Amino acid sequence: MTLTLDQIDIYDPNGYVAATPYDRFALLRRERPVFRQEMPDGTFYWAFLKHADVVDASRRPELFSAEIGGVVLEDQAPEQLEQTKNMLLMMDPPRHAELRKRVYPHFRPRQIALIEDRVRAICLEILDAGSEMGDVEFTHDLAARIPSQVFGELLGIPVDDRADINRWAEMMTGGQDPDINPDGYADGTNEGSIEMAMYGARFARERRGRVPSDGVGDLGDLLLATEIDGRPMDDLEFAYFFVQLVTAGNDTTRTMMSSGLHVLIQHPDQLEMLRADHTLIPSAVEEILRFAPPLHYFRRTASADTKVRGQEIAAGDKVALMYSSANRDEEVFIDPDRFDVSRSPNPHLAFGIGEHFCLGVHLARLEARVFFEEMLDKWASVELIGEPERQRSNLNNALKSLPVRIRPA
Ligand code: HEM
Asked: Which residues of 182-208 are buried (b: 16+ CB within 10 A; e: fewer)?
């Protein structure tokens, strides 16, 4: 049965369970690249499916605001929006540029490179655990431990608290999947974000005034001292920044690792190329991010009437920047449905682009490069022993289980 354009639904999270609907995205890129999608709550949004349109809108934050309506398609209650306005991702210029300028130095490549040895040690420990277990559910048993350990180290989060933080992060981003967030799924609230913000505020309170033993401190100390409006962040501002960092960095990184391994298992020739030539790993990481971006979209809200590809967009309309469609745009990528670890250039949009370009990009790349480098040495083979399961979500392009058998080298 062929689907007419008006029957296509790219909102329904059920449409993402079996696989990302790349065929529908391709049809829409051809036929209706600025697509009007109805939502179950009676509202609608414009999905931007073309790479050029996602880039253009991302670069015009004054017209396509992250602050007016936040970055997810479901409209938030006014009080919730008020709170999220303090998160970097949901700020518009000029507030955004001001805060970003202050925190960026802690995330720049030179700074992140300093922790490569620590990241390697964490990856080796996790790979060894995998070798010992043999049969694992890779997503939770191993992949989830990478960002939570790295992040915990960076910020100085006590080891015993890291599992809680992981759980809250997954509850927050798994809101559309009843297996992950049964309460949030039922009533639209999100316990995870509240718990995490409370933890962040407590963390700030307990840390303040502490003199780091080395005189410099960890990222937690540095961020606490970061100034906004000429004064250090207060506990609440820190709490939001904390929630933002953990949620932005945790699940996305876990997903990059698990989708990356899955894609490599599905493309044994490409995996062999990497085994033979480790210098291809950085470009393989970019290709994993293009081919299976951890996030399908982020939302913007038009702040004034405008027109895109002839389509009128009114002030207040919602827009979805469809990264997973843009990454397969045939006008930008040759043979976009082919997974090619040597692809170059690779201007994928998994990390967004423009003002809000991912702050953690260098950390994410480092984690993936080091993990796959060591994995290829430590594991002689890794194979599927069951059907992977995908998260029910139109936002997170994530696996919730990846059962594999590992044979150590
Ligand atoms: C594979 C892993 C990751 C992916 C795919 C990813 C993706 C993204 C995307 C798509 C954006 C928004 C771009 C936009 O709105 O234009 C973003 C922003 C952001 N990411 Fe990441 N991210 C990842 C890892 C991380 C990590 C590890 C951290 C923390 C260390 C992090 C922190 C942030 C922050 C703070 C922002 C907001 C930046 C701003 O608004 O200026 N991300 N990320």
From this structure: eebbeeeebebbebbbebbbebbeebe
Residue 212 DSSP class:
P
Task: Report the SS3 class of residue 389.
Answer: strand
What is the three-class DSSP state of 264?
A: helix
**Alpha carbon 57 to chain centroid, angstroms:** 19
Angle at 255 (CA atoms; ends 37, 355), nearest 5 degrees = 60
- pTM of the predicted protein model: 0.94
Bigger pLDDT: 73 vs 181: 73
User: Is 54's C-beta closer than 6 angstroms to any atom of ligand 1?
Assistant: no
Please report which confidence band the pLDDT of residue 183 belongs to, taking 50, 70 and 90 as the band edges.
low
Q: Work out the pLDDT band at 170, boundaries 50, 70, 90.
A: confident
Query: Among the atoms of ligand 1, which is closest to the Cα of residue 367?
Result: 27
d(CA 135, CA 32): 45
- Say whether pLDDT at 2 is over 80: no
DSSP bridge partners of 319: 46, 300
Of 62, 34, 21, nearest in space to 355 by CA: 62
All structural domains of the chain, each given as residue ranges with its CATH number in brackets, are 5-408 (1.10.630.10)
Q: How confident is the model at residue 169 (pLDDT cuts 50, 70, 90)?
A: confident
- CA nearest 138: which of 146, 149, 275, 192? 146
User: Could you identify the atom of ligand 1 that is nearest to the CA of residue 91?
Assistant: 40
Say which residue the tokens 């017209």 belong to: 63
Question: What is the arithmetic mean of pLDDT over 219-229?
Answer: 84
CB atoms within 10 A of CB 338: 12
The pLDDT, as a whole number, for residue 323 is 98
What is the predicted pLDDT for the residue at 187?
40
Rounded Cα distance between 396 and 350, Å, is 12
CA of 199 to the centre of ligand 1 (A): 21
Is residue 154 within 8 A of residue 219, CB to CB? The reply is: yes
Please check the confidence at residue 185 and state whether its pLDDT lies above 50: no
> Quick check: CB of 143 below 6 Å from ligand 1?
no
Comparing CA positions, the residue from 103, 79, 108, 109 lying closest to residue 89 is 103
When computed from its CA atoms, the radius of gyration of the chain, rounded to whole angstroms, is 21
